[in-house]
Amino acid sequence: MRSGLLRAALALALVGGLFWPAVLTYTFLAGERATAQVAECHRTTSGRASQLNCTGTWRTDGGDVGSGGLNGLRRTDAGTSVEVRVGPLGPYGRGFAGSWHVFTVSLFWSLSFGGLVLSQHRARRRAAPLLAAPAALGDLLIVTGKGARTPDGRRHATVSPVPSPPMPRKARAKTSHWEVRGSAGQPLFRVDQRGGKSSGTEMVVRDPSGAPRHIIRMVGTGPGSHYALLHADGTFLGRIDTFAGAKWGAYEIRDDRGTVWARTVLRMPEWVLRMEPGAPHPFPYLALAFTIGQRRRPR
Fold first, then answer.
1. What is the DSSP letter of 129?
2. pLDDT per residue as tens digits for the range 36-78
3. In the chain, what is the straight-line distance between the N-terminal and C-terminal CA atoms, in Å?
4. Measuring CA to CA, how many Å separate 37 from each of 86, 208, 235?
5. Which of 227, 274, 286, 294 fits as disulfide partner to 130, beta carbons 3.0 to 4.6 Å?
6. Neighbouring residues of 195: CB distance < 8 A, sequence distance ≥ 6
7. Residue 63: Cβ within 10 Å count
């Protein structure tokens, strides 16, 4: 449902960004011609933005008259007579050249939201195979920063913040602490999630009592980067890699022999997590902790 709401919001934002330039295009091409007498032009400022406001009167070729704001003009037009076109948003002068900023902003807006729509389409396409195949209860989850549910809406896990445990903090590293509970409210594990510009990303996964059990640690940056899965003593357990051909938003969780036990894919704004049948402990917990962590950021 959240994915559908995001698609609807993106579509509305894209349409909204095109509305103003579409109305102006109609005005410049089909608006009624008029002659305006510009009474004054003055600039108003709000924060860092400023706007030129001109006022005056106008008479259309059909004889209709009006008074008020005149758009698309220059300060030097004050006290002169200019040709304008009258449309749904009022009179505009100097054609497209007088409102170039509107079309520039609209182009940037459209490209930005068009890119988001394309990204979401690609994310949904990557997630489709994970959702299509049958799965046992608990092996296929929709994950957010607040918990996880099955595709049919049944709660699987919830997330809540917990107080910071006594532990040394890395210099300049932001840290958050949270606990994951099962569908019946039983504690499953705790997570200390750390991240900083120089320290990278690290998650310490603890048992319900608070004892550290595993570590998920980012290794490298850029192409070739991955996450190492470690026991609490630092011995190697496995790794998390991006899908072949993906830069982000699609990961495979492997053991130390290279066997894939889980896959997680961003569907925007949620993640789809699929565990392989018979995935051994602790890979289901680590896959869930990693996926939840993608929606929660250290503060």
1. H
2. 999 999 998 888 778 899 999 999 999 999 999 999 999 999 9
3. 28
4. 14, 77, 81
5. 274
6. 173, 174, 201, 202, 297, 298
7. 6
